Amino acid sequence: MKKKILFINFGGLGDEILFLPSIISVKKELPDSEITLALEPRSKGVGALTSIIDNMLFADIKGGKKYIELFNLLRNIWKKKFDIVVSSGSNKFISIFLFLTFIKNRIGYDTGKLSKMLLTRAVPLNKEQYAAKMYHDLVRGITNFNTELPEIEIDRRECEKNTILIHPGVSLMSIKKGMIKTIPAEIWAEVTEKLADSGKKVIIAGGPDDRQVIETIERMVPCEKYKNMYEKTRNLKELAELISGAEKFLCSDSAPLHIAAALGVKTYAIFGSTDDKKLTPENDRVIPIKAKNCSCPLRPCLWEKRHTTCKTLECLNISSDDVVEAVLNS
Prior knowledge:
alpha/beta, Rossmann fold, 12 helices, globular
């Protein structure tokens, strides 16, 4: 009989992309299953990258009506009559929420006694690993498959030699919350011009959240030095196809990083307050670019030690020369 499986993963687009391997492995084990993903509306674009998600349910938990949204999500779950629910997240409330779904098989992280009582399987939470592996631990009792990277369904382009695609932005929500995760727009502009002057074919990409940094590049760098693809990609699938045709990809710690890593494109990512070891796979195709002389004892601090970045941002003291050197010489 076809299994109806609900996955719950709240977070940004990057989180959803990193969660995909878990869903993919379960689908490989149970190919006839019906997959539903519950997520935040801001991350619905992940559906453009895969065909394995049959349905989506939404809860805007970052808005001002969090508990109303969660109750409405519960009501929608009750109507669907799922066989299994798998949820990420380390909040102790999650085990209560899963219990209230009345789904027979409830899988989540072990967050203490309550989770052991309310879940049918409480999985040890190991945050000291690549996030995709951390999520995948949740489904090891369901599947024997081990999908290490997201399998993105696109029409791959032929690699255009000597090209460097730059996606400089980060999510606007992270900026509004005081999470500064990339170098200033002016540094991105310097990087763009220096790479172009080195003989590289530079392409700039971005979406609505990236307007400020793109406008700075447009103001500071002569337009003939780069190809401007800003807002020319209509969804994540088209962005992924653009990334697939680049010889090298340069970005911030953001969702496009995880797309490029999944595609195996040589990728260079700016890292400051976040932990590159948890956000990049263990291979030589993704190269973190970090401040060379950062003495901050808290780094990496975001998520584990802080919910916003500090004012000094010593961890992002990365010059345009540092970035260009990394991209050209490795």
